[in-house]
Structure formats: C-alpha cells, structure tokens
C-alpha cells in the first residue's frame, strides 16, 4: 500500500506546531537529531522536511545554527500538495463544507479525457462550498475516478477532508497539475459565495494523480479573490513556473 513520503509527514507536524504557537516566530526549532528521534526518521529525512518549511517561508537557517521560525503560515502554497482542510487549520481557521450536489454519472468528454476514462465510464461528481470559520470562500466542482469517488460515502463532507479520509482507505493524492486564472462570478457562483455577480474570482483547475500516476480527480475550484492568495516558489534547481498564453491549449 502506498504511503505519503515521511519527510512530508514530518514537515506537516512541524507546520502544525508552528501554527498552534508551540514554536512562535523568533524561536528555534529542535536540532535535526532531536526531530529525527521524535518522529523515527533519518536526519536526511528531517533535512528534507526543513527544506520544505524553508520553501514555504516559515523558517530560516544559518550554517552551524538551529533553524529559526520567521513566520506563521498564511498563504496557500504549491510547494507541497496540501488539502484545503489541512491548509485552513494551518492558518488558524475552522474548515467546513456545504454539499450542493453529489452524484454518480457518466463522465463528460472533458472529464473522461482528464481522468483517462473510456466513453461513458462513471465518475462521482461533487459540488461543495468550502467555508473558513463559517464564511464561504471557495466552490469545488470535482469529478472523481470511480475507485476514489465510490469511497465518498465514508466521508462526512460537511466536516471532513476528502483527501485525508481517502488516505485511510489507501488512496493517496500524490501529484497535481494546477492552472490558475482570474474569472468573474456567474449567477450560481455569486449566490453560493455571497458575492455580486461578476465579482473577481480565482479559478484553480487541477488534475491529481496517485503515486503510480493514475488520475484520481479533475477539479475546478473557484476562490473569492478577497479571501485566498496563492504563492509559488521556484528556482534554477527546481521545476520552473510555466506561463501559458490564454489562447494556448492548457493542461
């Protein structure tokens, strides 16, 4: 059974500790050796976890010194694949959801293409409004491959993260391609997000696969432009951010 990379687990636990004030800004994290013993990890794994925190702008490191906390998590980052619920808790908010539609139906032509399905194969389609501490901030419209979507009956869609619950059943969201665009709210979007029609939204279209590269979901998420920001960090040593002209075919 596939498992999430250990360094990601260690990084997530350290983020939680930073978010809840266990390591406030200006404090120093424990040594690599101490963290390795605490989580049963190698020091190389701990270094990778620290690197992830550094990429998120949460810690600074200086040669020969322990890592210093410099910020609390506030933005949604693409340096690590992270669910809405996990991110919300990291920024001190209480995530929840309101289900608008949930149905099993044949895939549309686009869904079949994105999920590598044959014509007429089923998907589970979920439309859900996501809330931060009771305030609607995002609409998710997600088509799940049937092997993942068939497990949604085990998920409390008003209170739980789909990805977190599916991990308990051996379904792991490991890789994703994102396209971010600015769009205007249509009538349904405006009503669900309590906005004026035509208000600015950020649209994230996402194709997510498991550790073996098999598609799990094709999603269109619409965020209130005044509620959520995204950050992308890149370097010459890492895969660069790719810009697409809007007339080009997009992933």
Oligomer: single chain
Distance between the termini: 29 Å
Helix tally? 8
Total count of domains: 2
Tell me how many strands there are: 10
Rg, rounded, reads: 19 Å
> What fold name goes in the CATH topology slot of the largest domain?
Chorismate lyase
Main sheet: strands, sense, barrel: 6 strands, antiparallel
The helix fraction, in percent, is: 25-40%
Task: Write a brief structural summary.
The chain is α+β, with helices and mostly antiparallel strands. The chain has helices at about 5-20, 30-40, 45-55, 85-90, 110-115, 145-150, 160-165, 185-195; strands spanning about 60, 70, 75, 95-105, 120-130, 135-145, 175-185, 200-210, 215-225, 230. The mean pLDDT is about 85.
Please provide a written account of the structure.
The chain is α+β, with helices and mostly antiparallel strands. The protein has two domains: 6-72, Winged helix-like DNA-binding domain superfamily/Winged helix DNA-binding domain (Arc Repressor Mutant, subunit A); 77-231, Chorismate lyase-like (Chorismate lyase, 3-Layer(aba) Sandwich). The protein contains eight helices and ten strands. The chain has helices spanning 6-19, 32-39, 43-55, 84-90, 109-114, 146-149, 162-167, 187-193, and strands at 59-60, 68-69, 76-77, 95-106, 122-132, 135-145, 175-184, 200-209, 215-224, 230-231. A six-stranded antiparallel β-sheet has the order 4-5-6-9-8-7. A two-stranded antiparallel ribbon has the order 1-2. A two-stranded parallel sheet has the order 3-10. A hairpin with a 2-residue loop joins strand 5 (122-132) and strand 6. Helix 1 crosses helix 3. The relative contact order is 0.13.
């Amino acid at each position: 059974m596939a498992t999430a990379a250990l360094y990601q687990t260690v990084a997530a636990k350290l983020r939680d500790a930073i978010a809840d004030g266990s390591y406030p800004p200006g404090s120093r994290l424990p040594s690599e050796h101490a963290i390795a013993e605490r989580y049963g990890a190698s020091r190389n794994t701990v270094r990778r976890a620290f690197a992830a925190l550094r990429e998120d702008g949460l810690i600074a490191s200086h040669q020969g010194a322990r890592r210093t906390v410099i910020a609390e998590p506030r933005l949604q980052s693409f340096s690590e694949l992270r669910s809405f619920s996990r991110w919300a808790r990291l920024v001190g908010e209480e995530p929840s959801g309101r289900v608008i539609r949930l149905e099993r139906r044949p895939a549309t032509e686009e869904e079949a293409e994105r999920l590598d399905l044959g014509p007429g194969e089923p998907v589970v389609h979920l439309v859900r409004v996501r809330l931060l501490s009771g305030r609607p901030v995002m609409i998710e419209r997600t088509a799940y491959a049937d092997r993942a979507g068939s497990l949604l009956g085990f998920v409390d869609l008003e209170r739980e993260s789909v990805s977190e619950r599916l991990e308990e059943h051996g379904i792991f969201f490991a890789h994703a391609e994102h396209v971010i665009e600015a769009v205007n709210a249509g009538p349904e979007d405006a009503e669900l997000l309590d906005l004026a029609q035509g208000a600015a939204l950020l649209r994230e279209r996402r194709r997510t696969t498991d550790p073996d590269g098999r598609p799990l979901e094709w999603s269109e998420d619409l965020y209130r432009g005044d509620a959520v920001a995204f950050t992308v960090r890149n370097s010459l040593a890492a895969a660069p951010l790719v810009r697409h002209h809007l007339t080009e075919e997009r992933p």
